[in-house]
Design a protein that fits this description.
By secondary structure, the protein is α/β, with parallel strands linked by helices. It has helices at 3-14, 22-26, 69-76, 98-104, 120-130, 135-148, 164-175, 194-209, 221-227, 245-251, 268-282, 301-317, 332-344, and strands spanning 31-40, 43-49, 52-53, 58-63, 84-89, 92-93, 105-108, 182-186, 213-218, 230-235, 238-243, 256-262, 285-288, 293-298, 322-328. The chain has two domains: 3-251, P-loop containing nucleotide triphosphate hydrolases (Rossmann fold, 3-Layer(aba) Sandwich), CATH 3.40.50; 256-329, Alpha-Beta Plaits. The radius of gyration is 25 Å and the shape is elongated. The protein binds adenosine-5'-triphosphate and magnesium ion.
Length: 349
């Protein structure tokens, strides 16, 4: 069984869908938090967070401004002291063994952390020296990381003249110098143009292929959807939903749809009669007069295909011709909004 499948199973447990087998329970998490809390004064910013991220996973923490993402990363990277609760990185207790835990991870913070006046090579050499990496090994790694970052031919240019995307890539290379098993990335693509974002995404995929566990925070739904094995939706310091993109989609009923465009235009009486019958037979549906299209909401994938076949058959039987049909899945944006609304209304997710 793959790691991802294990992780998925576990997340399903947390959302009450199934229980993992004992083998899954034994698998050591790369990052784990136990009722982790952080308050600033009487304001609770992280509220009993229980995360479990498996080795090799890319996990995206998705949340609004002020949700507590950076604060969480601050605690996991030992920069901020938790108010209560604890966490482990590759099995090392973050509060009792912070030095050992620190050796396991690299961090790319929300700000670009490079020296503008040093060259790309010098920046990385400086970080290698901080980690006490021997010169010969450091040189090899710097060469390799610059190559991977697409900066090999710019190694001796001043970092200050690099574009935002190149600077971000250099920052990421710096975070990987000591070959960490875990990489924390706080909004790695914020402020970058689409081409640079894509380049960073490619690098992230590559790191994951190398077996690095990645926890990234993002506001970009597209980013989480594209990259993450699992997504945690964070709201006001609490994890309000967690799972693969597919699992999150499954939690949302009624926003999968079927659309059937009719060939001929019918009068409104005929349409009303037709829609009444369709609602009786297939559930929630409306008619888009502008597009001459029937829209149906369906709760599940299985039902989606089944309903589509039945709707098309029903239309044919009733001699109502159609020119095209389509099914749609909710975007992560819709999932996120639906989850947020649910939480606002006090519903459990
Ligand atoms: N040092 C601090 N002192 C007081 N309040 C703080 C401190 N750091 C963060 N906060 C508060 O904690 C809350 C969460 O902030 P945090 O930076 O973790 O959010 P975030 O999810 O990273 O947001 P963003 O997406 O904007 O980066 C905010 O209300 C913020 O004002
Ligand atoms: Mg932040």
């Amino acid at each position: 069984m793959s790691k991802l499948t294990n992780a998925t199973k576990d997340s399903m447990t947390e959302t009450g869908m199934s229980r993992p087998t004992s083998g899954d329970e034994l698998q050591q998490a790369a990052i784990q938090t136990f009722d982790l809390c952080k308050s600033f004064g009487d304001r609770q910013v992280v509220d009993h967070l229980n995360l479990k991220i498996y080795p090799g996973e890319l996990y995206a923490l998705l949340g609004d401004n002020g949700a507590g993402k950076t604060t969480t990363i601050g605690m996991l990277t030992t920069l901020l002291k938790p108010t209560s609760g604890t966490f482990s990185i590759c099995g090392f207790d973050g509060r009792k063994q912070p030095e050992k835990a620190k050796g396991m991870f690299g961090i790319v913070s929300q700000d670009i952390a490079i020296y503008q006046e040093l060259t790309a090579y010098e920046n990385l050499k400086f970080i290698a020296d901080l980690h006490g990496i021997k010169s010969g090994i450091a040189n090899e790694r710097i060469k390799d990381l610059l190559q991977r970052a697409g900066l090999a031919d710019r190694a001796h240019d001043r970092a200050g003249v690099f574009s935002g995307g190149m600077q971000r890539k250099l920052t990421i290379a710096g975070a990987l110098l000591h070959s960490p098993r875990v990489l924390f990335m706080d909004e790695p693509t914020v402020g970058l143009d689409p081409a640079s974002r894509r380049q960073i995404w490619e690098s992230l995929k590559e790191f994951r292929a190398m077996g690095v566990t990645i926890l990234l925070t993002t506001h970009y739904l597209e980013e989480a959807e594209l990259l993450a094995d699992r997504i945690g939706v964070f709201r006001e310091g609490r994890l309000v939903a967690e799972g693969t993109i597919e699992e999150l989609r499954h939690q949302i009923r009624g926003i999968r749809g079927i659309a059937v465009r009719l060939t001929e235009w019918h009068d409104s009486e005929r349409i009303e009669k037709m829609m009444a019958e369709i609602r009786t037979l297939f559930g929630e549906a409306n008619f888009d007069h502008l597009r001459n299209t029937i829209n149906l909401s369906q709760p599940g994938d299985g039902e989606l295909v089944n309903t589509l076949q039945r709707v098309l058959a029903w239309l044919s039987d009733n001699k109502i011709s159609f020119s095209r049909f389509a099914t749609s899945e909710p975007t992560l944006e819709e999932v996120f909004l639906a989850i947020s609304t649910d939480v606002n209304q006090g519903g459990a997710v």
